[in-house]
Amino acid sequence: MGSSPFDSWISGDDEVSELLSREWQRQTNTLQLIASENFASPAVMAATGSILTNKYSEGYPGRRYYGGNQVVDEIEDLARRRLTALFGADHANVQPHSGANANVAIYQALLEPGDTVLAMRLDQGGHLTHGSPASMTSKIWRFVGYGVTPRSDNPDVIGEIIDVENLRELAHREKPKLIVAGATAYSRRIEPEVFREVADEVGALLMFDVAHPAGLIAGGSNPNPVPYADVVSFTTHKTLRGPRGGAILCREEHAKKIDSAVFPGQQGGPLEHAIAAKAVAFKEAAHPSFSIYTDQVITNARAFAGALAEHGFRIVSGGTDNHLLLVDLGTFDDQLTGKAAQEVLDRAGITTNRNQIPDDSRSPFVTSGLRVGSAAQTTAGMMPDQFVQIAGLMAHALRYRDDDTAVAKVRGEVAALCADFNPYASFA
Ligand code: DSN
After folding, report:
1. Whether 378 is catalytic
2. Which three-class secondary structure string do you get for 300-319?
């Protein structure tokens, strides 16, 4: 194993240094295809590792419960200003530690316990916090789930897209107080106008969870729901390429309730080092080069989808309009589960995650699908040619999964590819 910038980075702690070094090797010598991951810039990482980790600042700028927050107030204000400008929103809260915290804070701000919420089911592409039975959200609020249309075998009809008629029917029948749009495993555009229309028909509030496409929206490559939604939540570390964390945008009329729900409702002291890193990421996302990146992410994802389909995989929803693909393994090999595929690909140096496909007959732990994304390797500089090559490497490793030599050979080709596209080459 070669040297890494982290070999002796943590002074006095060889064990942690060694582990960081190994993770650097993993991130730079294998392919990162998990749709919710990306490579943050050195500037984002510098802010995350800054002296702001030392500071307590419960409250909000100008209204803190601790002294010494003059500089922190300016940092958090800067992050809020940059974020509202980026998305054209009235108000921003940059304190949520994660997307899950952000979502729960929104429910707490806008709902009473027991209120009805209409959201996408987890097994159809939604998120745990959209009322999955495994999430505490389903125990406090009454979630009703919408899903996608049935799979279509007619090449002229795209199946597995959000079933707007079902959404409308459920909305009229259940009279939700809140409708949630957004997903974690859905590759098609989510049109904000349609959701606003349905919400208005039944007098519901509208929330968009754009954790996945936030960066694509910031870059202008996916539709911006801010003009249509009452409130928008997202994470900052996926396509937006910032530090791990969450954020909320809302209309002015909800600002006070949202802020109180985040602090003191959900959280104590904000992570100001993460907030400084969010500010850095928001500035990076406002730069014209970020739009070139987000357009490329989608172009690459489409090339990846086309190449995987040529190798016999079925792409759920018939393709992609964003950074992610949900791959049905059944047409490639009906004995191959998502769990087994993820494990084989790990051995081949290709990092993915198993994922249920709509109406999957297998459990969420086993699954019949894989979810992959183009955001991270596009940051590393890859283009359609590389994604076509990756599709071939994946197909080969999975086809010859019982042959250790074949899988090892793919791993060697992956390492050679990664050597040409090291996102942190300047660190070495
Ligand atoms: N875990 C995130 C994802 O991978 O999409 C969602 O929380």
Report:
1. no
2. HHHHHHHHHHHCCCEEHHHC
The rounded Å distance from CA 212 to ligand 1 centre is 8
Span from the CA of 63 to the centroid of ligand 1 (angstroms): 33
Residues ≥6 apart with Cβ < 8 Å to 122: 128, 130, 132, 134, 364
Task: Report residues whose beta carbon is within 6 angstroms of any ligand 1 atom.
Answer: 36, 99, 127, 184
- Write down the residue that tokens 């009805």 correspond to: 116
Stated as kind and residue range, the H or E segment containing 350 is strand 350-351
- Tens-digit pLDDT profile for residues 115-153: 999 999 999 999 999 999 999 999 999 999 999 999 988
Torsional sign, CA 2, 5, 11, 14 = negative
The residue whose CB lies within 8 Å of the most ligand 1 atoms, and thus the one to mutate among 33, 36, 97, 355, is 36
| Catalytic residue of the set 64, 80, 188, 238 | 238
Q: For ligand 1, atom 2, which residue shows the shortest CA distance?
A: 36
Give per-residue pLDDT as tens, 222-252.
999 999 999 999 999 999 999 999 999 999 9
Please say if 256 is a catalytic residue: no
Q: Which protein residue's CA is at the shortest distance from atom 4 of ligand 1?
A: 36
Closest CA to 174 of 195, 143, 137, 208: 143
Q: Which of 37, 76, 209, 360 is catalytic?
A: 209
Encode burial over 347-360: b for 16+ CB neighbours within 10 A, e otherwise: ebbbbbbbbbbbeb
Answering whether pTM is above 0.85, one says yes
E-strand spans in 236-294? 246-250
Q: Please choose, from the candidates 356, 353, 314, the residue with its C-alpha nearest in 3D space to the C-alpha of residue 123.
A: 356
Is 235 one of the annotated active-site residues of the chain?
yes
- How far the first Cα of the chain sits from its last, in Å, is 13
Domains, in order of start, for the chain: 48-286 (3.40.640.10), 289-421 (3.90.1150.10)
